[in-house]
Write a structure and sequence with these properties.
single chain; alpha+beta; 3-stranded mixed sheet; 4 helices
Length: 123
């Protein structure tokens, strides 16, 4: 199976949907933040490994706690994933923090500040 095949794209979407459902409703770990979302998932073509990009709304301590909680619950998440999705192999999940949303919010604030300064200079 090629990396960008239709089958691999469908598997990525299904795993992403299932991971979001598991993180939102199944895990009872208090370290995992309430505003945790799965941004993207990339399953390897051999279905052995999976990279899941996670976004967390909160400060750096919340992000670190959420990552620790997800890593400790990886076995539980993997077993739930095996029950939800019928794959030949259930992939081993590697959680990666996605900073793109926080980066986008920060850049948007900076653009707004520059626009305010430009409007003040014009007046």
């Amino acid at each position: 199976m090629r990396k960008n095949s239709v089958k691999n794209t469908r598997i990525n979407g299904e795993v992403m949907r299932a991971l979001a459902d598991i993180i939102r409703g199944e895990i009872k770990d208090p370290r995992i933040g309430l505003m945790t979302s799965v941004v993207a998932v990339e399953v390897a073509p051999d279905l052995k490994t999976c990279k899941a990009w996670i976004s967390v709304l909160g400060d750096e301590q919340t992000v670190a706690d959420t990552l620790a909680g997800l890593n400790s619950a990886e076995g539980f998440i993997r077993s739930k994933l095996a029950k939800m999705i019928n794959l030949r192999n259930t992939p081993q999940i590697q959680f990666i923090m996605d900073q793109s949303i926080a980066y986008g919010v920060n850049m948007s604030k900076k653009i707004d500040e520059v626009n305010k300064d430009l409007n003040r200079e014009e007046e």
